[in-house]
Amino acid sequence: MRTEQVHLAYQRALGNKINKLDPQLRAPASPQHRRTVDLTAMTSSSTLLSLVCFLLASSSMARAHGGGGLKHIHLYMHETVTGPNTTLYAAAPPRQPGSDTTFGMVGVLDDELRDGADPSNSSLVGRFQGLFAFAGLATPPGMQTAVSVVFTAGEHAGSTLVVVGSVVSSQGPYETAVVGGTGAFRMARGYCVVKYAWSPTPVDTVYELDLFVKLEGDLLLMMDA
């Protein structure tokens, strides 16, 4: 009997709560209302399905056209520091000329980019053109660079990559950021690793250049087509 009394009290309490609700909420749903609810649910499901299909298609398109991968470009930068064919020039002297510090020195460079380390047995494919500035007091060399990798021949002729960053070490490899580009490299992102290769002459230095580029511009090229 106690169980039945508890159950009856629960039903009465639940009935009191329902009676306090808005009459429209307590009233059974009309056929028209049920149809409206069903149509709303179907529309929401259709919209969600369309969104999922769009995202899947975009992801597949990006993978098919290289949007999610890294392209590796391997080149050699040939630099001449003195003489009639110099590719490196200090345009502004340091803050205190004659001192040991290089702080404040600003320069330009226009190094050759070749497909090989031997200048006599390699092809010219572009230029490594840009500015550099010694901007470090506490952490030499503290050199900041802003460079355009300009492709003049080969697969990427007519395109460029923009590389900026700090040269944090003059001894080992250093890394800078690829922040953009033009042509085939429009809206590119990635990084660039530069390391010493060899010195064919006392005034010439060859550096190995590895560019790792994410090709995010392929979808834009498709939209322009």
Characterize the largest beta sheet: strand count, sense, and whether it forms a barrel.
8 strands, antiparallel, barrel
The number of helical runs is: 4
List the secondary-structure elements in sequence, H or E. Answer: HHHEEEEEEEEEH
As a whole number of angstroms, the C-alpha radius of gyration is 33 Å
Mean pLDDT: 77
What's the count of strands?
A: 9
Strand content: 35-45%
**Unreliable stretches, pLDDT < 50, 5 or more residues?**
1-11, 13-26, 52-67, 219-225
Portion in helices: 25-40%
SS class: alpha+beta
* Shape label: globular
Separation of the first and last Cα atoms: 81 Å
What assembly state would you assign to the polypeptide chains in this entry? single chain
User: Which sequence of strands runs across the widest sheet?
Assistant: 1-3-4-5-6-7-8-9
Briefly say what this structure is.
This protein has 225 residues and is α+β, with helices and mostly antiparallel strands. It is 28% helix and 38% strand.
